[in-house]
Amino acid sequence: MWRESGNLRGLALLAAAMDGTIPSRAGIRWLTPVLALALLGTTASGRAQDAAQLSPEAATAEATAEADADFDAAFEIIDEPVEPELPDHAVDITTIEPAEPEASQLGRGMASYYGRRFHGRPTANGERFDMHAMTAAHRTLPFGSMVRVTNTRNGQSVVVRINDRGPFIRGRTIDLSRGAAEQIGMVSAGHASVELELLES
Predict the structure, then answer these.
(1) What's the pTM?
(2) Range name among 2-6, 116-120, 136-140, 141-145 with the lowest pLDDT average
(3) What pLDDT was estimated at residue 1?
(4) Which pLDDT tens digit goes with each residue over 160-195?
(5) With helix as H, strand as E and coil as C, how does 161-198 read?
(6) Which long-range contacts (CB under 8 A, 24 or more apart) does 25-32 make?
(7) Residue 201 CA neighbour count, 13 Å, CB half
(8) Please, where are the H alpha helices in 20-173?
(9) Which H or E run contains 16?
(10) Are 186 and 172 in contact (CB under 8 A)?
């Protein structure tokens, strides 16, 4: 205790000397407890900081905050998109055009169409007839066959799927749905000379 008191008096004298004054004995007695309190406060705050550094809860909270900051930074909006480095053998699929299916010529014929009168009725393959769908009736082609029908008068084409049998009128080769007939501009006439191509799947 005497040593601590002596040390504090020495600090009081040092503080006074730095100020350029030589204190009286009473001044030293007054300055000593003030320095003691100051040193005690500094020591207490240092211990509190050490305790905070050693606290597992505080360490966990700090680590969580850093992780959250890193996570947010990883998803910041990039001002300029970075182009990926592609290997030499990479293919740009946006420049690839789908290959045209191979087609077998079926020859010319006369097409007619059917629509509202048969809408919703079952077709020969069991489906319900939809006058707006791209379908057609043919006497012999297998169900599911895809046929390109081209109006020889205006060059307009449509691809239809065979799902019905017909037409059963002499001189007619294929019966289109109304929707398909509209695509090749033959609704007003009711029939048209067409070229047929069977598309290979």
Answers:
(1) 0.53
(2) 2-6
(3) 41
(4) 999 999 999 999 999 999 999 999 999 999 999 999
(5) EEEECCCCCCCCCEEEEHHHHHHCCCCCCCEEEEEEEE
(6) 32/5, 32/8
(7) 4
(8) 25-54, 56-74
(9) helix 2-19
(10) no
